[in-house]
Design goal:
With 160 residues, this protein is α+β, with helices and mostly antiparallel strands. It is built from four helices and five strands.
Length: 160
């Protein structure tokens, strides 16, 4: 059985989760002079579909090969208990933001940018919207997927 992260009726805590994750993204963007992102329910729905797929498959993180129109960040953690109040959307966002430690302002390379690619997608200058969702596998892994539009990380381009 897969537990879904987004109930049909949004409780205040789910809204807070989104706001906190969006705030992490926008703090990263503000630090480099980029406009804030807006939350996209459509991108969130797409992210939820793929998070559900990853949780069902439960074989680790693999980018969505069918996603041709949006940027994507993925993250995996572990679910602790029903009383667990961790905000997985925020935790994933903070993890991606931490890649700033390895980033030196440069054009996106053709390969080997796995240490900073999540971060550069977060701060990409032309990206305006984000949606993030999560799902839990039968083995207790939490899969988080973020979708960005327009996408970033264009090879040979600077992020801003």
């Amino acid at each position: 059985m897969i537990l879904l992260a987004a109930p049909i009726l949004m409780s205040p805590s789910v809204l807070d989760e989104k706001e906190e994750a969006l705030a992490v993204h926008n703090q990263a963007r503000e630090a480099v002079g980029q406009a804030p992102l807006e939350w996209s329910n459509s991108l969130e729905r797409d992210a939820q579909v793929y998070a559900n797929y990853l949780a069902r498959r439960d074989r680790g993180l693999v980018h969505d090969r069918n996603n041709k129109k949006d940027g994507e960040n993925i993250y995996m953690s572990y679910y602790h208990s029903v009383d667990d109040e961790e905000n997985y959307l925020k935790s994933a966002s903070e993890s991606w933001f931490e890649e700033i430690q390895d980033y030196q302002y440069e054009k996106i390379p053709g390969r080997d940018f796995h240490k900073t690619g999540h971060y550069t997608q977060m701060i990409w200058s032309t990206t305006t919207k984000v949606g993030i969702a999560w799902a839990i596998s039968n083995t207790g892994k939490v899969y988080v997927v973020a979708r960005y539009n327009p996408p970033g990380n264009m090879i040979g381009s600077f992020p801003y």
